[in-house]
Write a structure and sequence with these properties.
The complex is a heterodimer of chains A (225) and B (41). With 225 residues, chain A is mainly α. Chain A has 2 domains: 52 residues; 171 residues, no CATH class. Chain A contains 11 helices and no strands. Chain A is elongated and about 65 Å long. With 41 residues, chain B is mainly alpha-helical. The longest helix of chain B is centred in the middle third of the chain and has 26 residues. Chain B is rod-shaped, with a radius of gyration of 18 Å. Classes of the chains: A mainly alpha (225), B mainly alpha (41).
Chain lengths: 225, 41
Amino acid sequence: MFRSARNNGLSILFLTLFVLALVSQSIAGYLENNERLAQHSQPPEGFMEFVTSSEFVVDVAENWQSEFLQFFLFIAATIWLVQRGSPESKKPGDEGPGTDEEQKTGEHADPDSPEWAKRRGLPQVLFSNSLLLVMGTIFVLSWLAQSLAGVVVYNSENAEHAQAAVGWLEYLATPDFWNRTLQNWQSEFLAVGAMIAFSIFLRQRGSSESKPVGAPHYESAEEAQ
Amino acid sequence: MADFTPEEAGPQLGERVVFWAWMSIVAAGLIAMLAIPLMGR
């Protein structure tokens, strides 16, 4: 039991933080929503009514999509681009998807390599890109959820001000949709860029996200190991 | 030289549980976030 918790500590920590943050967000959002309803002389909503409403969904989904976009772009960009000195990057000259020998695929697979790495054709192509495919799919679906919930909230606010409802496609061209989207994207790109740049010259002893403390500043991830 | 013993080298139940737990959370979240606005709530 203890060994299992030790072996999976990172996942357990982030699962706990995720649940705590989501529950806290739902409580804060519920209270804020009822404050707004009171300001408009409307009756308060129940908690379950709020967490199963588009008001709550749009706030959750706009953050989900930007996080998965961040990882999708980072995984894709690090195939072809490098940052000399960053532990987040391969070393200059190693750009590209790598050879079968480097990637241990096909006849270069080890006996304990995953089954689909040993196979040729579509299974290997799918498995070779499975992380990017899954992150990209989650990004697209959560961005779609943001847009679907966003139009419901947008139309409900329009109705309060006696304005006409818009369709989903019309909503995609509104400042509301792009403001919700871009305010999340800018912070993700800033954080990733800063992490890549700061990790060239800064260290965190013991973290897998950092080069060893004594590694030269010019060394990238694979050189430093 | 890997720093684990041979008995730890293979895929373990714990890793599978972690992987499918996260997949389930994300899938359930996406289904709920798509279904709620589609129901007009």
